[in-house]
Amino acid sequence: MASLDSVLDKDGVRLTVEDAVATVTLTNADKRNAQSPALWRALTEAGRSLPGDVRVVVLRGEGKSFSAGLDRQAFSPEGFDGEPSFLDLARGSDEDLDAVIAEYQDAFTWWRRGDLVTIAAVQGHAIGAGFQLALACDLRVVAEDVQFAMRETSLGLVPDLTGTHPLTGLVGYARALEICATGRFVHAAEAERIGLANLVVPGEELDGAVRDLAGALLAAPRDAVIETKALLQGAASRTYEEQRIAERAAQARRLRDLAGLGD
Questions:
Q1: pLDDT tens-digit readout, 223-233
Q2: What residues have CB less than 8 Å from 83, skipping those under 6 apart?
Q3: Which of 108, 149, 218, 257 fits a 20 to 30 Å CA distance from 100?
Q4: pLDDT of residue 263
Q5: Is the pTM of this model over 0.70?
Q6: Is there a contact between 197 and 188 (Cβ–Cβ < 8 Å)?
Q7: CB-CB contact of 170 with 194 (8 Å)
């Protein structure tokens, strides 16, 4: 087995790789892994730094909380060192503000890449940007003490870090609206019942459960998993007949590859 190699360690984000599994860890436990533009850039860099043979990416947070959300320093007049404050950004043009938010979103988009399966291991608080980061992953394994909440509306904002699409897909429009508009906590039992969590385990078993899931995902051939993920990701936007056609095309590719007739 290959050794655990550290690929990146900066701005509250550490990326390590062992064989076909990469682990992205939020490392600012003292601040409950509160998020900042620097952390978002580091997450984007982590996605770009993945070796080509990685198949599964695990996202986790050190300490008692997965991520308590956006660091409130972003709303102070001084902001972060070397960064424009959010108040300064608001004074810019619509085009500039849109570009900045799009850059922030990059940290949340690569987790859905077709060649990866991503797992969020979530304990404690996953609030606002923390909730959206967990939603960015394909799968979520959570500890019994998990507390999801979308608190942006209580600050007069909206969830803008790509979380609204997966949340609505998982729980439906009405429940997603209620969760976002009220900002209430969703605890472990409800998260599993409504589809936010694939699995709930005691906190001390979280890492082991994620390892077991990663191993199960690696048991199937990579190309079959990639094709299956693409089929499922596109299913909601296709009609039943279109999905049947997509299934046939994907299966034909797999059969030709297995027969050594692929391109």
A1: 999 999 999 99
A2: 36, 37, 38
A3: 149
A4: 64
A5: yes
A6: yes
A7: yes
